[in-house]
Amino acid sequence: MSAGGDFHVFRLLDESNFDAYDRGHYGPVLEAGIAKHGLDIEEVLAVTQDFGLWAICTSGVFRAALRGVFKKRIEVDDLIPYSRIEEVRVESSSPRSGKLVMLDVSNTKLGQIDFGAGGPDRTIEGEKAQCERIMQIMERAWSQV
User: Fold this and answer.
1) String of b and e for 98-113 (b: at least 16 CB within 10 Å)?
2) Nearest 10 degrees: CA dihedral of 12, 65, 33, 7?
3) Rounded to the nearest 10 degrees, how much is the dihedral formed by the CA atoms of 107, 48, 7, 139?
4) Domain tally, the chain
5) pLDDT tens across 75-121, in order?
6) What is the CATH number of the domain that holds 26?
7) What share of the chain is helix, strand, coil (3-state, %, to 5)?
8) CA 71, CA 124: separation in Å to the nearest integer?
């Protein structure tokens, strides 16, 4: 992806989702997910980090990550359409972390987005706010399906 492509992707998203390190790594990852699922960048409503990224889209959510220490590769999971999601729960993992858990009609976990305060730039309050923001965006998109 060219630097111009990075700018196109990230100008459409909330700047608070990425720090300088992530900008260089997650642009191609997001673009690979968009291409795999046949989406347009305009369908991506938000992106959040979780040892990779979760893209919250108009039709569902997907996880993608840059893997490998020496041989870098991009892995993109299947799209979880909102029509398969019966419930999204906010759960606490520990005093410093939480998660959004997506369940289907039989209470089977479809996926989970982890939020944790670690490092100088990630506070408990900031991660809670990010979790709530992502939950609200998902609920709005989910209600449109």
Assistant:
1) bbbbbbeeeeeebbbb
2) 30
3) 50
4) 1
5) 999 999 999 999 999 888 777 778 899 999 999 999 999 887 666 66
6) 2.30.29
7) 40, 35, 30
8) 34
**Using CA atoms, how far apart are residues 45 and 23, in angstroms rounded to an integer?**
17
Bridge partners (DSSP) of residue 103 are 87, 109
Q: Produce one character per residue of 40-50: b if its CB has 16 or more CB atoms within 10 Å, e if not.
A: ebebbbbbbbb
For 136, counting Cβ atoms within 10 Å of its Cβ (0-12 exposed, 13-18 middle, 19+ buried), the class is exposed
Report CA torsion sign: 48, 117, 129, 109.
positive
The position carrying tokens 């191609």 is: 28
Q: Are 33 and 62 within 8 A, CB to CB?
A: yes
pTM, two decimals, is 0.79
Q: In one letter, which amino acid is 79?
A: L
Q: Are 79 and 56 in contact (CB under 8 A)?
A: no
Expressed as residue numbers, the domain containing 74 is: 3-143
Q: H/E element holding 114?
A: strand 109-116
For residue 12, give Cα distances in angstroms to 27, 38, 42, 63, 127.
12, 18, 7, 19, 21
